[in-house]
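Ticket #4471: structure export looks truncated?
Reporter: QA, pipeline team
Priority: medium

Steps to reproduce: submit the single chain below to the structure queue and open the exported record.
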Amino acid sequence: MRRNQIATVVEVKGAPYEVGFQHGSSAKAKIARFLEIVYSRARQYQPALTNKQHVLKLADKFLPFAQDWAPDLVEELHGLSDGAGISFAEVFALNCYSEVTYSPIASSSTQLMGCTSFVVSGGALSPPSTGPIIGQNEDWGRADSEIFIILKIKPSQGPSILMTTPAGFIGYAGRNSQGIGLVQNGLAATDGRLGVPVAFVARRVLQQERIGDSVDAIVNSHRSLASNYLIAEESGEAFDIETTATDFDIFHVEDDIWTHSNYYFSSKLKALEEKTPSWESAGCNAFRAGRLKNIFRKNYGKINSDLTMDALRDHVNYPRSICRHPDPARALDWETSASIVMPMSQSKTYVTIGNPCNNEFKPFDLG
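Actual output as written to the record:
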């Protein structure tokens, strides 16, 4: 029997500092716990980062790039720091989660989160005239679901935003009031560098009023790490942007069914893809994207929000399935921490905190 989990909803509004302060003061305990996770995982995956000061020193190297590219978001982090009662250096390190835990800047670590994402549209849907449905399973570490929140932002300028994100994180999967939705999944490439943190890029995507500008926000940034960004809007347009730190490839999604996990489709970018036993097997990554696509193909013309939610609960290839669970046999502690389904023609976003197999999706309004 599935649980009716209670998600923490944080609603903020105003100028950047005010948005950050309200976020920090409303989620202090979860932010503090997230910071503990950042320190622990950095030490686990980056042997060179033996203490907290090493983590903060590494994160600080990314600050000039964030400040130059998104000073408004840096100002928001100053507010978040004051609201949460922790130092700015720690708040910034928290928002460099990928950079300090998985970046090849510090060592050769390629331990990444998983995540399986999708967009379905057109004739695949029932009824076919509805806008696209975009969503994903957000695969993080064991028990990381405790730090996830629903963050609603009404900025003094720009679109309103709803994200499903770890507390204290300023950019992750979600949608905005202009009808743009974003989901992400990690990729492993060999060209990591000092640059704009992934969380900042994600937030910039959701700050845009046009989908083309969202694409520009990704490709024109001096990125720090590889990531995959899948974007859709209510008109039906969708783009998948695979990136490394130094290159990218844009796929205009023309198929009614599109799925992605943690490997490159782009033949151009495969030369930069990390190939090491320390990262998950290519078979697992290819499986999750392929399995999700097969579920949707078998239900072509009948897909609605409920069917996509059920697909995200799939356990074929358990525990390294679409709905991820820890795999003690392989010392992998990843699991699905949250799931998000966004029917872009509707105002509601459906979210679970924790594995969707154990939890019901709950609707949340953007406003």
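Status: closed, not a bug. The export was complete when the record was re-opened. Leaving a note from the reviewer for reference: Residues 28-45 form the longest helix (18 residues).
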